[in-house]
Amino acid sequence: MQRRTLIHTAALAAAGSLVGLPALAQGTWPTGKTISYVVPFAAGGTTDTLARLIGQQLGTALGTTVVVENKGGAAGSIGSEAAARSAPDGYTLLGGTVSSHAINISLYPKLGYDPIKSFSPVTLIGTNPVVLVVSAASPYKTLKDVLTAAKGKQGGLSSASAGTGSSQHLAVELLAYKSGVKFTHIPYKGSGPAIQDVISGQVDMMFDTTVVAAPHIQSGKLRAIAVTSPKRLGSMPDVPTVAESGVAELKDFEVQSWQAIFVPANTPVPMVTRLHDEIRKILAQPDMQKRLTGFGMEPADMTTAQIATFQKAEVDKWAQVIKAANIKVD
Known about the structure:
alpha/beta, 12 helices, globular, disordered N terminus
């Protein structure tokens, strides 16, 4: 399913003010052609939220129009493959995640793109842990409650995710592997529809990013059980970490999600540099920093070379986890 949402058209004066500047140094994106910001997940999730926050200001900075396109499915693989096949001309951005650009390569035997070779990194937006949530009406209040209930139920408790192979899926599989308790995984085409079924009680629980879950926790629709970070979050000081659950097997449990922006491989370096610089300015704004930390994210500031190194390490890390837990795509 595709959903195109126009998020910004810059004034002609903004474009005109850049005329005459060195094309490669300042570079204007022709106002007659839009930039497609591909979000490989359904609307309403973390990647979608960030795309809309960044895309609006990026359109102004580049003197053109940025359009968000939601192409969800297969834990970000469908949209990522579409972006990888796009022309490397600076008019396609992709909201990449730990799922699409670190995990999927070890889960899908016939992935239609290489997370490293098919793209060039532009910006690492930030990292954030995921949080285990249940409906506010759920009887479960602690992680021990969840594990005890799962042990006593045929097939275990049901756990929603943004898709098979997503960080939400990996988190519950890692929990099952380390605790020895079974869960029934229920994949969706994005966090938005998945978390709504947790709120309504149709699904028992879900690991999701703090970006998506926090508003529902604050509104009282969801109850936070535990976060997957090494230490408690400043935005959720009363929510214990999984490691604090008192379960010996979970003492080193940690899952970190991350959000980044990529372009197709072979996009001209001056364009990648300009995109990196402009997005870096947007993310450095106090209001944006406040939004990111309010979501429970740890803002990042890396060069494109540092992002490439970070991504390679993540690919290797999750390959080891997937192999150790014997996680397979259905």
